[in-house]
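One such shown below:
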Amino acid sequence: MSRDTATTVGKIDPDVLAFTEGKDPVLDLALVEADCIGTAAHVTMLSRMAVRPVLFTEEQRVAVIRALKDLVEEARRGEFSITAADQDVHLAVERRLTERLGDLGKRVHTCRSRNDQVAVDIRLQVRNELDGMASELAALARALLALAERHRDLPLVGRTHLQPAMPSSVGLWASAYAEMLLDDAPMLQAAREVNDLCPLGSAAGYGVPLPVDRQLTSDLLAFARPHHNVFYASCARGKDEAVLLAACTQIMLSLSRLAEDLILFSMPEFRYFTLPRDLCTGSSIMPQKYNPDVLELIRAKAALLIGSSTAANAILKALPGGYNRDLQDTKELYMEGLRTTRTSLRIMTLLAENLQVNPDACRAAFAEPGVFATDRALELVAGGMPFRDAYHQVRDHLEDLRGMDPDAAIARKTHLGGTAGLDLPLLRARAEALAAEAEAHQAKIAAAFRALLDV
């Protein structure tokens, strides 16, 4: 009995089929809508191509679009499936179109390859995810800034090497992480710019001998522009995912540091903050426990993002030009990276919105007089003493600092970005601009898709 398995693209040994399909039948379910939209644009372009006889009449184009819209609805209801024989979303969509439209369905793949097809699917999905991530990043920044505003003037011991260092404030601490995240946003913008190029029409990377209108396809899908060189369009697969993962990694690094601070500052020994109990987990044996598991997982997931980013780059490192099947394994990396980063942003926003600040514990931490040492040394300098002399005098008389006022200490730092020099409206405006840009971009894309699908 033959071991060959018949598929849309020929007979394949079943073990080879299982090995090469990998997780595509599962992962590609996330790409069904993108594949249908990309196919709609491709068929629309083919219907306008200057060849005789026409490849698709207007009536045929409308029939294909209508069938594609039905497949999108099936996918949204969770009723679309990809079989082992399909191998991936592209052949599954083509199979469903052929079942419904007969020979018309067999013609939709004209002038394209699965190479440019998967590349455009990924870019369509990533584009949507990037807008969502930008909105979620802005939401977390706003939550941190609201926390900073509520406790702007509450003293908090600033630390270096985890040791008490200088007077700080909750406002300074919370708005620092907001600004850190807002400074991660340009990396998302860079990833969007790299992603916002249309590879469709490059086929297997060498173009086709028919007059495809690649600019039209790009416009229909609301991309900034098509890749110019068709060979580069093929080589860009994987690089797009690697750039995305690099941006996600930077966001996760920021979240990991914020998570570590929250874990430390909510310990009973500090008790500066109290984590929302419904966002913590309990112990199976210790009734009193409320564990910061979500924060610990964010730390771990930051490490996983670093690994995924490294893996994507390593896959690309020694590839020859053109498509290579190695690139299949960048798909799970970027999908999981997107899911992890967006989930982590949403979880951290919940924590920031519901975090309880304990003013008494924050002020009690100033009982250690050394935290005022630098401020006192600089006061002596302002009175005319050389800094190094002031440094030694304060160090040798730390007990003289006991009882200094932390509120007065943070009120004196009025310079730009100091505890009394925070421009929280400036940071809020940056967060609002980021959210508005993402919303406007999503609206533009939605309008283009409505026009394409006639909905």
User: Anything to note?
Assistant: The longest helix spans residues 114-150. DSSP finds 18 helices and eight strands in the chain. The beta strands are 5-7, 10-12, 155-160, 163-169, 197-198, 225-226, 273-274, 356-357.
